[in-house]
Amino acid sequence: MTLVQLEYLVAVDTHRHFANAAEHCFVTQPTLSMQLQKLEEELGVQLFDRSRVPVRPTEIGKEIIAQARVVLAESKKLQEIVHNQKQELSGELRIGVIPTLAPYLMPLFITSFLDKYPQVRVVVQELLTDQIVQKLNHELLDVGLLVTPLDNKGIKELPLFYEAFVAYINPKHPLAKQPRIQAGHLDMDELWVLNEGHCFRSQVLNICNRGGRSSSENGGHLDYKSGSLETLKRIVETQHGLTLLPELSVLEMPEEKQSLVHPFEEPQPLREVSLVVHRSFLKKKLIEALKEEIINCLPAKVRERQKMQVVDIK
């Protein structure tokens, strides 16, 4: 049994296709298949059900693949020890970030981080929470930027800050006259929210469920499903109703639109934003440097806020 065979094993599990796995490993498909066959012969078990498309691991194969991931992660720590000894931060850092954070948080720190660590290549993907967790489990990402808690035993959470929710209200709406609002003031039928699959949608609905009401009026004839907070802003500005937004999304808003932003009364509903990594994560010093840079670049009122009423995303 070799580390190379384990890498091929994990690649097939990740891609669920022998040809794609071989391409990822920069070998021919026959070479990869031969090495996996040798591994199966040595172990005396069948690791994959090749009769199914896409190919899937057998029950015993699932257990062996899980252990193979641990072995490979531990072997990579040898290289990390060398890097740490040299006191250098270099290599590739693959970051997954949810769409309701990416356009507002990334610009705050990414330039200064790259300037400070010029030998680091950063690769960023905007993904939904479930996609980030899946890619972390398959070692396709090093770290995620998302909202916690996740209650996932395979994931380690490193809290960064607590971000407040604010209401964004059309000027003609009755609530526009109130400088601060309560969850009980919200009418679900007048609220614009993101599509299913966004954790921010669940957070918003949970705020409303703490006291929001639903009326028989639907507030109009427009039914618009959006995956973008910026689109929701424009709908509120040009149509009717209101939406809820994360605090960072309104900090750089033009002065003429600031009147549409209404904070909640204390205690404000918050969301916990964290760096998340796999339990056996690598690149510890690099991720710690990323965490430090993000915190240092946050607006003071966000950085100094303590955990109060964090919205459950379930």
TrEMBL record:
GO cellular component terms listed in the entry, alphabetical order: protein-DNA complex
InterPro entries: LysR_HTH_N (IPR000847), LysR_subst-bd (IPR005119), WH-like_DNA-bd_sf (IPR036388), WH_DNA-bd_sf (IPR036390)
Domain HTH lysR-type residue range list: 1-58
UniProtKB keywords: Activator, DNA-binding, Transcription, Transcription regulation
Keyword match GTP-binding: no
Gene3D superfamilies attached to this UniProt entry: Periplasmic binding protein-like II, Winged helix-like DNA-binding domain superfamily/Winged helix DNA-binding domain
Molecular functions (GO terms): DNA binding; DNA-binding transcription factor activity
PANTHER family named among the record's database cross-references: HYDROGEN PEROXIDE-INDUCIBLE GENES ACTIVATOR, TRANSCRIPTIONAL DUAL REGULATOR HCAR-RELATED
Family: Belongs to the LysR transcriptional regulatory family.
Name of this chain's protein: Hydrogen peroxide-inducible genes activator
